[in-house]
Amino acid sequence: MAPTARPTVAQPLSPHLQIYRWTWTMAMSVFHRITGTALYGGTALVAIWLLALASGPVAYSYVAGFFGSIIGRLILFVYTWILMHHMLGGLRHFAWDFGIGFDREKRLAMSRLTLIGSVALTLVIWAVALLVR
Amino acid sequence: MAQEQIRQDTRVSIRTPRARVRGLGVAHHGVNHWWLQRITAVTNTVLMLAFVVIIANMAGRSYADAVHIVANPFVSIILILALLSVTLHMRIGMQVIIEDYVHAQATKIAAVFANNVYAVLVAVACLYAVLRIGFGQPA
């Protein structure tokens, strides 16, 4: 039997991100990648800080001066939040790796907890750091 | 015939039984990256919380005090473990992102290569600095 010619039709494409309604789980998934990328770049700041400390008092005074400035503190504050967010996001993924928390309510609760928890942890860390000083 | 028997039939599947038993897949690395990413995720949580405490303690201190804190063997070891755990984790994480979004072969290889260079550079720079401070040789 001769093969019948298949009609050529344009393949349907999956909708792109802008068509989806944003959901908590989706937003937190995107946030996890963005915060991971930010932390990736941020390790350069840690390297600069440690190298300055190893280089001597003059180099360290510049770096410590920068991180002590308004802009420097703002970077450290946002960096703390990004770190906490990525950490809680990772723990959420870890629960999923064990097959825990896949039903709708838990999914939503864990996603919300990632954002609320990261903000709360950041505020607690900075409050303790500033009060103990 | 059950799905499992079809998979094991070399007349149906080109994969040899030995290849299936080794379980290393087409990349020949199996689940190595997946597993290492989970292991370092766990160690990161503990080590980075310790890192935050160390940083918070150093803020606003003099150079001599800052060196004194990092030179403490306990602090030095935590910092070294943290930098190893973090650089391993971020190297795999960024490779996953690159492989998801960069599809042109040449660009992808260049990006993955650059990612490895960056991760090694950060790791060696931090390791060198911590060891130099720990062994008491800051310039």
Main attributes of the structure:
heterodimer, A: 133 residues, mainly alpha, 3 helical TM bundles of succinate and fumarate reductases, 4 helices, 0% strand, B: 139 residues, 2 domains, 6 helices, elongated, heme (chain A), membrane (chain A), Succ_DH_cytb556 (chain A)
Please characterize this protein's 3D structure.
The complex is a heterodimer of chains A (133) and B (139). Helix content of chain A is 76%, strand content 0%. Chain A has 133 residues and is mainly alpha-helical. Chain A has one domain (24-132): 3 helical TM bundles of succinate and fumarate reductases (Up-down Bundle), CATH 1.20.1300.10. The longest helix of chain A is centred in the N-terminal third of the chain and has 32 residues, at 24-55. The mean pLDDT of chain A is 91. With 139 residues, chain B is mostly helical. Chain B has two domains: 1-30, no CATH class; 31-134, 3 helical TM bundles of succinate and fumarate reductases. Chain B contains six helices and no strands. Chain B has helices at residues 3-8, 17-22, 32-58, 63-71, 73-101, 105-134. The mean pLDDT of chain B is 89. Classes of the chains: A mainly alpha (133), B mainly alpha (139).
